[in-house]
Write a structure and sequence with these properties.
The complex is a heterodimer of chains A (186) and B (186).
Chain A (H helix, E strand, L loop, with lengths): L18 H20 L2 H17 L1 H4 L5 H25 L5 H7 L9 H14 L5 H11 L4 H8 L3 H18 L10
Chain B lengths: L6 H20 L8 H17 L12 H10 L1 E5 L4 E3 L4 E2 L1 E7 L2 E7 L2 E8 L4 E2 L8 E2 L3 E4 L3 E7 H10 L5 H12 L7
Antiparallel strand pairs in B: 1-10, 2-9, 3-8, 4-7, 4-10, 5-6, 5-9
Classes of the chains: A mainly alpha (186), B alpha+beta (186).
């Protein structure tokens, strides 16, 4: 309800006929989600392509979804996973330094609490992999700048579910980030 | 945990909110997305899937989940007709899986090029890149425009370790070609 007026163009009622129709109708939004999570276009393109390949490989199942809305929800779920996987691969690679980490996690360079925030986010980015899948996806979409209503619309879940996942995520992060700002950031 | 007035406590919640604000800001500078590349990739995967396992290839020996993971791990590269995917004597720091387009495998013999094999979509090339320190044993040329997955030696090792259940046929195919001499046709 709350996203109906602001959201993307309404998809057709029934499911997309084939993968190409789905790609053409959704690629802008799918890439936008990936870019807002990842912040770097090469990575956003990669996540987008990977997501569509996954849908193609699962097309036998995805084509049986009753509505385009459900197919889109599945797409957003998959592209969020792919973006997270790219973040994870970046973490494995030593060439990404603090600046990249800050860029990836969207900390503004001009932030006064930059160092503290980076340290916190470094911990947070590792901690989120321990969250249950839906909770993790909700949190990642929130950090990509989407509002609760938008996230609900994207993932095809109720806004109250989004709210409770977010409150779980915040509660969880409080537990794993105990020392931020207490001398760590000097 | 103290609440409200304590700056540390504020930080915990604010990390997500700060990221949220940054993510939202990114929305204004989402670059254009090249849908052509994605469509080509998705079509190639669809064609491979529809062709089935006849003839069996590296690709068809994988489950759809493994195929998806392989694509996510790989760089997607295109090679115009007539160009080399790899050259004999070069350092073998990656392996490739051809998704689209025919290729020929050649070696230099007394200053002349001899074609020793052909590789088609679904095939694995560059086996020497499965282990570090290898050198290319042959040159692979694109006969027509080629789309290939390029996986670094490092990433392929990670992929293999994360998929210990990779079918023997895959390992066998790779192993045979690494150890066996290039067999001349006839």
């Amino acid at each position: 309800m709350n996203t109906a007026s602001e959201g993307p163009p309404t998809p057709p009622e029934g499911p997309y006929e084939d993968i190409e129709a789905l790609v053409r109708a959704t690629y802008e939004e799918c890439h936008r989600v990936a870019f807002r999570i990842l912040g770097r276009n090469v990575d956003a393109e990669d996540a987008t392509q990977n997501a569509y390949v996954r849908l193609m490989l699962k097309w036998l199942r995805v084509s049986t979804f009753e509505t385009a809305r459900r197919q889109r929800a599945y797409l957003f779920k998959v592209v969020t996973n792919e973006a997270l996987q790219i973040i994870r691969a970046r973490d494995r690679r030593p060439e990404y330094d603090d600046a990249d980490m800050a860029e990836k996690l969207q900390v503004p360079d001009y932030a006064v609490e930059q160092v503290q925030a980076r340290e916190g986010l470094r911990l947070a980015s590792q901690a989120i992999y321990k969250l249950p899948a839906t909770c993790r996806r909700v949190m990642v979409l929130y950090t990509a700048g989407y509002e609760y209503g938008e996230i609900a619309g994207m993932l095809g879940i109720h806004v109250s579910t989004v709210r409770s996942h977010m409150s779980n995520a915040r509660e969880y992060l409080k537990g794993v980030l105990p020392d931020i700002g207490e001398g760590e950031g000097e | 945990m103290s609440n409200g007035t304590h700056p540390d406590a504020a930080d915990h919640g604010d990390i997500l909110d700060r990221m949220h604000t940054q993510g939202r800001r990114r929305d204004e500078r989402v670059p254009e997305f090249d849908i052509g590349k994605t469509l080509r990739l998705v079509r190639a995967v669809r064609d491979l899937t529809m062709r089935g396992a006849d003839p069996p290839t590296f690709w068809t020996a994988l489950t759809t989940a493994e195929q998806g993971d392989l694509v996510s791990t790989a760089q997607k590269r295109t090679f115009p007709a007539g160009t080399a995917l790899m050259r004999e004597g070069e350092r073998a720091d990656s392996v490739m899986v051809i998704l689209d387009g025919q290729t020929k495998v050649c070696i230099q013999e007394r200053g002349r090029e001899r074609v020793i094999a052909e590789r088609m979509p679904g095939d694995f090339v560059g086996e020497r890149g499965t282990a570090p320190g290898g050198v290319r044993s042959a040159t692979v040329i694109a006969i027509e425009p080629v789309l290939a997955l390029v996986i670094t030696t490092e990433d392929f090792a990670v992929f293999a370790s994360e998929h210990p259940e990779l079918p023997d046929i895959v390992k066998q195919q790779v192993y045979d070609r690494v150890t066996g001499p290039p067999d001349p046709p006839g």
